[in-house]
Amino acid sequence: MEKETTKKAKAPRPAAPSIQKMRAAVEKAMAGGGPVRVEAQKSRGKFTARERIHYLLDEGSFQELDLLVSTRATDFGLKDKDIPGDGVITGFGQVNGREVCVYAQDFTVLGGSLGRAHARKICKIMDLAHENRVPVIGLLDSGGARIQEGVDSLDGYAEIFYRNVRSSGVIPQISVILGPCAGGAVYSPALTDFVFMVEGISQMFVTGPDVVKSATGEEVTFDGLGGSEAHSSKSGVCHFVAKSEPDCFRQVRELLSYLPQNRWEKPPRVANPDPVRRQVPLLEKMCDLDPRRPYRMHHIIWQIADEHKFYEVQAAYAKNIVTGFCRMGGEVVGVVANNPAHLAGALDINASDKAARFIRMLNAFNIPVLTLVDVPGYWPGVQQEHGGIIRHGAKILYAYTEATIPKVTVILRKAYGGAYIAMSSKHMRGDFNFALPCAEIAVMGPAGAIEILYSRELAACKTDDDKAKLRTTLACEYAAKFASPYQTASTGSIDEVIEPSLMRYKVVRALRFLKDKRVPGTQENRGNIPL
């Protein structure tokens, strides 16, 4: 009987001392602030910085930079603290297979506070994004400037702000607020193209509740002062709100699918299963609606968009105007539309600012704009006038006129006065301007116009019934002669009065014709200033 022989497994060869030293340093740096602080972070319902990067980027695509960078400051006990990474993780990776640069502040390390080394790491990754023409995403969770480093931390913020402005309109910049963001730190997100917040964990404010109370006597909570609800619906600082961190990262990934990598490229095109010639019979009901009856503009957008999908931007702010992205014929389109369900769709200060900045962002990144018009005018009132509606309203005029991207406009129902001009009218260099058969285009609405034009005739009426009948007759005559889309088309201010059911096809066909539009002599670099 032969003896069975077994080979003994060889013990793994120990790594060289230099490799062991490297691995130990990397392991310590990747541990962040240690298990106690990591557990404290999770007890607040928050992810760690590394978990956030994992959720945001394609699996296995993250390449970290400057892992072992550490502060050189020595005052106030910093000399005795070993802080590898200096409270921020930086690197590059992919979202949907496309390259991005990312930095994530680590609240477990000195509260994510920003010092000199911390700022240099962020600036380095921002420079990398700018030079390689890829988007940059900041995941912000920080206690603010590192007091122990004095003015060096303030100088670090200044360097970041400089890069925000330099990259504005060159590459997409996205800020994701995932904890506190206070003091001077809030101005970097404000300079970027899009700001995300998460309910319950995100706060942004220049001065905190305690300072507010001591200065003004007002008592307010952190969320009440600078939470997601305050900034998404009142201040307009926040563009998107998420219920949770995973939902937030899903939204960021979706937003990036509508954006190009930089100002020299166009947004990614996708295969389009939705027929371009798909008719929209529901739009024929527009012509049966009372001009004063409200409706949600979203229903129109959903009907004409590919697969009925619309990604709205700033949904809770200035609801009288709707902005967002959809695809038509597989191509990305930016939508700006009056919303009759709120303030009758009139333009006011906030709506003008919201639309103007969105249009300028579209212009910076080569995204065509579709304007859907149903506007009775500018919103009246002393507060609006004293708040500067003239100045703010002029921004939307400037944005449309400046834009050299393809501009297609459809007047759905009302387009009166200066607001008609502002909403990408023909003489503001709209490329294709269409109108539905029910559109009313005039200096003002028929009801108001006849009160001025026929004041003597109305005053001569002996009874209220006679006056009401005369008003109805005169209003119909005025609308037929001066507010008709056919009258406007006869002057060339409208290119075509279209069949409502063919609106999707007409828009897609126009955008395809305009896909290679170029305007000679226009400035190439167009920043996206926070209006």
Notes on the structure:
By secondary structure, the protein is α/β, with parallel strands linked by helices. The protein has three domains: 29-256, 2-enoyl-CoA Hydratase, Chain A, domain 1; 281-445 and 484-513, 2-enoyl-CoA Hydratase, Chain A, domain 1 (Alpha-Beta Complex); 446-482, no CATH class. Helices cover 38% and strands 17% of the residues. The strands form three sheets. Strands 10, 11, 12, 13, 14, 15, 16 and 17 form an eight-stranded mixed sheet that branches. It has a seven-stranded mixed sheet with strand order 1-2-3-4-5-7-9, with helices on both faces. The protein has a two-stranded parallel ribbon with strand order 6-8. Strand 4 (136-140), helix 5 and strand 5 form a beta-alpha-beta unit. The longest helix has 19 residues, at 464-482. The N and C termini lie far apart (91 Å).
Keywords:
alpha/beta, 17 strands, 7-stranded mixed sheet, 2-enoyl-CoA Hydratase, Chain A, domain 1, 531 residues, 8-stranded mixed sheet, 3 domains
| Euclidean distance between termini CA atoms | 91 Å
Beta-strand content bin = 15-25%
Using the coordinates above, name the CATH class of the largest domain. Answer: Alpha Beta
Mean pLDDT: 90
* Count of folded domains: 3
User: Largest beta sheet, briefly?
Assistant: 8 strands, mixed
Number of strands: 17
Give the proportion of residues in helices. Answer: 25-40%
Rg computed from alpha carbons, rounded to a whole number of angstroms: 28 Å
- CATH architecture of the largest domain, please? Alpha-Beta Complex
